[in-house]
Automatic annotation (TrEMBL):
PANTHER family: OS07G0603500 PROTEIN-RELATED (PTHR47967), OS08G0469000 PROTEIN (PTHR47967:SF129)
Top-level taxon of the source organism: Eukaryota
Organism: Oryza sativa subsp. japonica (Rice)
Gene: P0470B03.33
Pfam families noted in UniProt: TAXi_C
One GO BP: proteolysis
Keywords on record: DNA-binding, Hydrolase, Protease
Protein's name in the database: Nucleoid DNA-binding protein-like
């Protein structure tokens, strides 16, 4: 675990670089993850996305109640070509410091507030029909599917797109949130619910 927050004890605060950047690649990727400081933390050239797509950015937001965390202004979520019916206000930071969306490389799941989670889950279940969703009480995930689909079923799993303030649209494959396990292979949706705020894994950004 590497402390990259704004707190006084974090590695970033103690080293004091003018800026830093990191890219956590998929555990299935042969490419190594990278952590850059100072002049090496650029958003162009060799440190830019290997996909060749234009670099996108969104402003960080300060939450006075949790000043060490990196909050962002999320405006909406799409699955495939469908923008989900989610009120953008559900992503806002409340006066008491609850709510909001922040990125956390130390959490094992992406956590969404209940209304957001329900909207994403409903659409995912609808898209993946006729696969029956099931709960996995062993590790506490409620949205799991038998995988792969039967040979007679053609299934397309949509990508997820996060829409941020400033016009940044971060597209990532939904398979980065679906994890297959077991000899009978169950695909589990690695997103759960949290009442106080939404927490995003950096792998999906």
């Amino acid at each position: 675990m590497v402390g990259l927050g704004r707190g006084l004890l974090s590695l970033v605060s103690q080293l004091g670089p003018s800026r830093f950047s990191y890219c956590l690649t998929s555990f299935l990727s042969p490419e190594p993850s990278r952590l850059n400081f100072g002049v090496f933390a650029t958003l162009n050239g060799t440190n830019a996305s290997s996909s060749g797509l234009p670099v996108q950015s969104t402003p960080l937001v300060v939450n006075a109640a949790l000043p060490s965390l990196y909050f962002m202004s999320l405006k909406g979520i799409s699955l495939g070509q469908k923008r989900l019916p989610i009120d953008p206000l559900v992503f806002a930071i409340n006066d008491d410091g609850t709510g909001g969306v922040f990125i956390d490389s130390g959490t094992s799941l992406t956590w969404l507030q209940q209304d957001v989670y329900d909207a994403v889950r409903r659409e995912l279940v609808s898209v993946l029909r006729p696969l029956p969703p099931a709960n996995d009480t062993e590790i506490g995930l409620e949205t799991c599917f038998p995988w792969p689909p039967p040979p007679t079923v053609t299934m397309t799993v949509p990508d997820m797109e996060l829409h941020f303030d400033g016009g940044a649209n971060m597209l990532h494959p939904i398979l980065s949130l679906l994890f297959c396990r077991g000899s009978t292979t169950v695909s589990q949706y690695h997103v759960s619910t949290y009442d106080l705020c939404s927490i995003l894994l950096p792998q999906i950004l």
